[in-house]
Design brief:
Layout lengths: L9 E5 L6 H14 L5 E4 L10 H4 L4 H6 L2 E2 L12 H17 L4 E5 L2 H8 L10 H14 L1 H11 L1 H4 L7 H12 L23 E7 L2 H18 L1 H10 L12 H5 L3 H20 L5 E4 L5 H9 L4
Parallel strand pairs: 1-4, 1-5, 2-3, 2-4, 5-6
């Protein structure tokens, strides 16, 4: 969605884990800065908010953050719960403030719902009270996700039809919403609900892709680098510090806690595959393939029309 160069525009960089979103955001910032702009990255990631999980969640390194300021990362205590509604409020304030100051927000994320919440006005359903969440979480531990999916099918078949029997987090959330009387058709989030035209501010949605085999190789190498840098120790420290239920949803948390690096790689590859599928269904997305070109070349090409 190329816009009038005089119109402040949000750049949104979305893509699967390990594809190079941070590198592209920094390259975009370099081009913008050369033109006299002052860009800032705003994270739209569900887990990068946690302080103490920087290695595991792939937060931009200190060196990268010196090249491009990143906001909404590493600010939530590891033992706290955090919701998409809270993130939406903070992201909207950051984006609006940057645009008001004449700066370019570069929203960066791989969590679809958090990206949507940052860019659009969503009707977000309420968080469940602690006692309701605890009851369904206990049921998940004792009965397993397929059994709870069967219960969801009995109570709300329209909701169960759109979720995998093994998607424990989504099943528990839908059962919570049903109990709160907040589950009305359609209950599932659909990717095509995010249209660039429906965003709060004029936005270019850049979907970063890569050949799947190349991406999987990058993911495996990235996991190895995380482990070598101390990600397992980071996870153990978070566990001892009482990591919250939401913090523990970080990709690889439970696998590294169990010492199973191969399982972390498999889970990450599977998640990346789902992200790519979701990405390619987004209307008005500008696909940016980084398989055989550098982030710098991609950034120059993407911003050439706005020169």
């Amino acid at each position: 969605m190329p816009a009038d160069p005089a119109t402040p525009v949000v750049l949104a960089v979305f893509g699967p884990t390990g594809v190079g979103k941070t590198a592209l955001a920094i390259a975009l910032a370099d081009v913008l800065r050369a033109r006299g702009d002052d860009p800032v990255a705003v994270s739209a990631d569900a887990l990068q908010v946690y302080r103490g999980l920087e290695l595991l969640t792939g937060v931009a390194t200190p060196a990268q953050q010196r090249r491009l300021e990143h906001r909404l990362v590493s600010f939530v205590p590891i033992d706290a719960r955090f919701s998409v509604a809270e993130h939406a409020r903070l992201a909207h304030a950051e984006i609006d403030g940057l645009l008001a100051a004449g700066r370019t927000p570069i929203v960066v994320g791989g969590t679809g719902l958090y990206l949507r919440a940052a860019l659009a006005e969503l009707e977000l359903r309420p968080a469940a009270p602690d006692e309701v969440r605890a009851r369904w979480t206990d049921a998940l531990r004792s009965e397993g996700a397929p059994a709870l999916h069967a219960e969801l099918t009995r109570r709300a078949p329209h909701a169960a039809a759109g979720v995998s029997p093994n998607d424990a987090h989504r099943i528990v959330r839908l059962l919570e919403l049903h109990e709160l009387g907040e589950l009305e058709p359609p209950a599932t989030e659909q990717p095509n609900q995010l249209w660039t035209e429906q965003t709060r501010r004029p936005t270019r949605l850049l979907g970063v892709t890569m050949d799947r085999d190349a991406l999987y190789a990058r993911i495996d190498a990235r996991v190895d680098a995380m482990v070598a840098a101390g990600a397992a120790e980071e996870v153990r420290a978070a566990h001892v510090a009482g990591a919250s239920e939401t913090a523990r949803k970080a990709l690889g948390f439970e696998q590294l806690l169990a010492g199973d690096v191969d399982a972390m790689k498999r889970r990450t590859r599977n998640y990346a595959r789902r992200q790519l599928t979701w990405l390619r269904k987004l209307p008005a997305v500008e696909l940016v393939d980084l398989t055989e070109r550098t982030p710098e070349d991609a950034a120059r090409e993407l911003l050439s029309s706005a020169a």
